Amino acid sequence: MKKLTTLFAILFLSFLSFGQVGSIENIDVEQRTDGSGIVDIYFDLLHSGTANYNISLEASFDGGSTFSPVAPEYLSGDLVEVAPGTGFQIIWDGLASHPDIFTEEAMVKIIANKVEATVTDVEGNVYPYVVIGTQTWMAKNLQTTKYNNGDDITTGLANEAWQNTTSGAYSVFPHTGDSWGNPIEGIDSDGEMINAYGILYNWYAVVDERGVCPTGWRIPTLEDYEALRDFAIGEGYPNEWNSVEGVADALRSTSVAPDPHPRWDAYEWEDYNHLDVYGFNALPSGYRTGNGDYYSLGQHVYWWTTSLFSEDNAWTFRVEYSSGDFSGNPTQQTMGYSVRCIKDE
């Protein structure tokens, strides 16, 4: 057997890490002809959002039976926090990385691992966020029980007190079941419920001047949600209730019962999709009515805006399990709904 000192014949397999949205395409491999064993790899990283990715390589010299990571010291080029785009390059010193491999063929996987961007609230809760079009959104429902100055948000209100308050307050959907008596299986505490679905706030809490969103973030307006909807429409997702590939389908998280929480209930009458195209991760947190009752965990999520519809009603936007549209709804300010924060421009 002859020690490899000449050119590799490279077979390239490209993929993104499990669960990522996007693809590595247009791969071009050029081995240098100077006997150095260096390989230039050109590729495009395509993604409908604008998350960044760390790029790595794995190599196989046994026909693809086993792959081993290529050590970073043998790689250079576009490797760290690469934003989606075209014309990227990796330089691989193949001979130096595997000097004792005797083969004329290497199989290499190009791997893109998403770099998760996060923001932290006043209590230390951490939220991933995503860029969609020109907007930056939290990818998880708000969980804070405090205003930004450290004051506690009022909680524990019985139905009558919840109905009558005009001050900020929050509730946690009962892990014991909704007001119809339907049990919530798989969640055993308030803490688990908050971690899965977030907190339900009345409108007075979300517009309190002390603030609930992290510094540099804010409660969205009606126009912010309309811009999100219009961006998805522009990418080919119709805002139609009977569409199984509508705006709501593009925003809805991919988890569906019997998956673990957080998850959507399965809708038996129509096969609505759970595409989560942009990583927005819409979660069905249910709601608390103005009378204090709890409904629709697994089926609906409503998010508050700061925009008034009338003196006693504010605009919300909703995603539900049985519709493809993403629509605004005027709602009583005493309702308990979820919050998604948007980054200040």
Give average pLDDT, whole number.
89
Identify the overall geometry. elongated
Number of strands: 20
Count the domains.
2
The parts where pLDDT drops under 50 for at least 5 residues are: 1-9, 14-21
Task: Spell out the helices and strands N to C.
Answer: EEEEEEEHEEEEHEHEHEHHEEEEEE
Beta-strand residue percentage: 25-35%
Q: Mind summarizing the main beta sheet? A: 4 strands, mixed
What helical percentage do the residues reach? 10-25%
Radius of gyration: 25 Å
Distance between the termini: 62 Å
Question: Could you characterize the architecture of this molecule?
Answer:
The chain is mostly beta strands. The protein folds into 2 domains: 9-115, Immunoglobulin-like, CATH 2.60.40; 118-343, no CATH class. The protein has 6 helices and 20 strands. It has helices at 94-97, 159-164, 190-197, 203-206, 222-234, 247-251, and strands spanning 9-16, 23-31, 38-46, 52-60, 68-69, 75-77, 85-93, 105-115, 118-120, 126-132, 135-138, 170-171, 200-201, 217-218, 285-288, 294-297, 300-308, 313-320, 327-332, 342-343. The strands form 7 sheets. Strands 1-8-4-5 form a 4-stranded mixed β-sheet, with no helix packed on it. A 4-stranded antiparallel β-sheet has the order 2-3-7-6. The longest helix has 13 residues, at 222-234. It is elongated, with a radius of gyration of 25 Å. The termini are far apart. Residues 1-9 and 14-21 have low confidence and may be disordered.
